[in-house]
């Protein structure tokens, strides 16, 4: 369930394109106007705006936004002229807002592909982010995203995974993006019981761990099936399958398994936890905060907010408000919504 607030009457995409073009003129970009328009348009409306913008100005809106909002040079010019005491935090907020806007303008598959490309690039390697994107997506989302990845970057996602990962982590990611899985709710209780037994034999029952069995079951089964396996495992062996994964595996391989399992059981709860971690402790992990808010707003943000409040006794909007500032805060809260 999405959290996006849209105008009561459908806005005119041509007028939006004109207003955006005006916001790009002059020194610096009027990010307030850009945010006010884009934060209240759904994926289809943003698509129409981009079509109109290209027709009118012979330029891709996403490229114009990236060029307007990218680069520390422009940001530091603004900051240097300001009287702010904490210029570093101000700059961080501006850059985070730019990142959020640049991702938001893209369609869901293009957004995932862009985040993945950056996460799998040697200069900005972030295997946790790559694992999060891959292992929290449905088979149909992965299929479209793989096609978009190739169209956008001229290289196969599998190639980049192979280049930047290794061992069991590499095996599970390649299997997860490569194996088509059933997406419906039906499960076969016999196979569920069999899988629970196989995981027990591959983990707790033996000395060491049979990673191949974990990879096979976690990458070949549907989310509904995996949730049923977790329930059956707990019933049969009086132990949480998540705890077993934590005890039997480690590193990014463990992260991949846990992401699959948690998303199978309750995706909203999983993302609430990721958001909490991004804002917990000293400083804020803006990269993760932006990624989750922007990619889940039109999917299940209302459920994520409910899970966040249930677990942490604080509204997600309040947490974001206390961890962000300026236009960055306004944009994220426009996407998340206050209720």
Automatic annotation (TrEMBL):
Signal peptide: none
Matches recorded under Pfam families: Annexin
Protein's UniProt keywords contain Transport: no
Alphabetical list of PROSITE patterns matching this protein: ANNEXIN_1, ANNEXIN_2
Family matches, as InterPro entries: Annexin (IPR001464), Annexin_repeat (IPR018502), Annexin_repeat_CS (IPR018252), Annexin_sf (IPR037104)
GO molecular function annotation: calcium ion binding; calcium-dependent phospholipid binding; phosphatidylserine binding
Keywords attached to this entry: Annexin, Calcium, Calcium/phospholipid-binding, Repeat
UniProt-listed SMART domains: ANX
GO cellular component: cytoplasm; plasma membrane
GO biological process: response to cold; response to heat; response to salt stress; response to water deprivation
Similarity field: Belongs to the annexin family.
Comment on protein domains: A pair of annexin repeats may form one binding site for calcium and phospholipid.
Protein name: Annexin
UniProt source species: Triticum urartu
